[in-house]
Amino acid sequence: MFGTEKDFELIDALFFVAEFLIGFVAVSLNSLVVLAIVKHRSLHSITNGFICNLAAADITVGLFVTPFAAMSYVGYPGNFYGCLFVNCILLILTNVSIINLLVIALDRFFAVKSPLRYQKVMTMRKVYCINCGIWLLGINTGLIPIYGWSHPYRELTFCRFIDVIKMEHMVYLQFFGIILTSNIIMFAVYTYICLVVRKHSTQIDEMNLRFASQTDIKRATKWYRKEVKASKLIVLAVALFICITPINIFNCITLFCKTCTYSYALFLCTILLSHCNSCMNPILYATSNSSIKAAMKRLILYALNISPEGLQLVMSSSYTGVTPSRSRDVYRLSEKSFYSQERTKSSFKSSVIEVTTHSPELESSV
User: Fold this and answer.
1) Which DSSP letter does residue 5 get?
2) H or E segment to which residue 344 belongs
3) What DSSP string describes 82-139?
4) Which one in 251, 331, 339, 341 has a CA-CA gap of 20 to 30 Å to 7?
5) What tens digit of pLDDT does each residue of 288-299 get?
6) Torsion angle of the four alpha carbons 15, 21, 25, 28, in this order, in degrees rounded to the nearest 10
7) Total-model pTM
């Protein structure tokens, strides 16, 4: 029956607690990513502009999607149009995050396919325009139920997702049109990047063998590190598929099999899993970038008042004779050298997605 209330059980309380934790982690991690990119001018690059926009979208997911999902779960707001609007907000922010993931994948594809042309064409102004376009596209696709593709108006006293949003919309547009299509493209792009990295690894190893006097162990280590770095790219598409697909499978069951039943607890777990994608994005994208990872580490150490060298606590003035303000000055002076060391350590392991080569030979080999 449409708009009927349900009994509140222990599993519902656990669902609310899990939603709160997911929202808190998503906001915390993605805020750290945004702060690291905005604060450090050396991180103001094309790819990081897209990553910053993705983190901002995931912040809104943590701030609005999880509370709105919990609010709709308990039946608020108790009228048709309010219920429809709240659930459309969930679709908007989810679509923005997914479209952003797709844009990052395509950005890396063009950067690897034609690096010299990519450097000439892509500018920060275009990045801002593309980011605005991502939000406009996500808003328009998320508001489609309000435009008319929803259940007809009826009196409601208890808000439920399936009472206002048609399963045809969720399956045909959201799952097949946006989520599944985006995931297939991402998987193809990152597979291509892995193949390119493997090809370049082989070429570099051949050049080292021919022109450099390095041992076989060093060459094998270089090849292994590059292969591991490239293999992580496929994990990005797989993680999105794992997080988003289960809830959409239940939507397909609801649409195509009217008599089928499934576990209520399992259904709640798939909802939580779909929201977990916003927690995984900063880990899989941002922390895999050595520069952003170093900047995030510096921000955490500075917030905890910890010295970056040796991870030692900054001693108090009574013990060292250095005032707190002086200790902060010492920390700021050491930031530059620390960041330089971090970049030096990870320069060899930098991913192909960060490569900006000026070599015509490498471009032609791609």
Assistant:
1) -
2) helix 324-346
3) HHHHHHHHHHHHHHHHHHHHHHHHHHHHHHHH-HHHHHHH--HHHHHHHHHHHHHHHH
4) 251
5) 777 888 888 888
6) 130
7) 0.75
